């Protein structure tokens, strides 16, 4: 029996603390607009971040959420995911400022997919990206304007946003499947 315990070499970020920092950054930005921006969250974790921002900012316009499953560049190799969610953009995006929310920024590929879907709904005046945590590892030239926090994070582990019954955030840190195979 292998009793060795493997843990990330990186410090696990405090998701709730990161959210408070992100909220401060976004609140200062939203206050400068005469017409509040449209908040759009990427399912799953980004939608949770967007939902909290929307509520904490007291925005009256409906929250928008998108599922990027069919816009991912790995769709042809991974197939349809079993957890596809509904995209809901109940506002006109033409000429509007948009804040796109996601939980983790890593390669930039999810952001590219989200932008493709957003432009299917209209042509925003601008799109700013807000993320809870930027873990580095960019494969595409994407950068968030609003970041709760960030640092390079152990590539052998995923960061998965979770929330409890009181809507507080935390990260679960499972070992990536390919890393588990390499370790055995």
TrEMBL record:
InterPro entries per record: PRTase-like, PRTase_dom, PyrR_bifunctional
Domain Phosphoribosyltransferase, first and last residues per copy: 16-142
GO molecular function: glycosyltransferase activity
Keyword set includes Glycosyltransferase: yes
Entry keyword annotation includes Disulfide bond: no
Record's keyword terms, sorted: Glycosyltransferase, Transferase
Protein name: Bifunctional pyr operon transcriptional regulator/uracil phosphoribosyltransferase
Organism: Formosimonas limnophila
């Amino acid at each position: 029996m292998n009793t060795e315990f493997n843990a990330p070499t990186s410090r696990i970020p405090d998701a709730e603390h990161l959210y408070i920092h992100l909220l401060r950054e976004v609140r200062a930005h939203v206050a400068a607009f005469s017409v509040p921006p449209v908040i759009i969250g990427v399912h799953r974790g980004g939608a949770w971040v967007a939902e909290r921002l929307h509520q904490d900012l007291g925005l009256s316009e409906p929250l928008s959420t998108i599922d990027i499953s069919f816009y991912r560049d790995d769709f042809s190799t991974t197939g349809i995911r079993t957890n596809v969610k509904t995209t809901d953009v109940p506002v006109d995006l033409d000429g509007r400022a948009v804040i796109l929310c996601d939980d983790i920024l890593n390669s930039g590929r999810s952001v590219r997919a989200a932008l493709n879907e957003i432009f299917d709904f209209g042509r925003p005046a601008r799109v700013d990206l807000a993320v809870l945590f930027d873990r580095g590892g960019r494969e595409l030239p994407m950068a968030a304007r609003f970041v709760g926090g960030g640092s390079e994070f152990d590539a052998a582990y995923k960061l998965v946003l979770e929330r409890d019954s009181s809507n507080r955030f935390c990260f679960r840190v499972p070992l990536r499947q390919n890393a588990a195979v390499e370790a055995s």
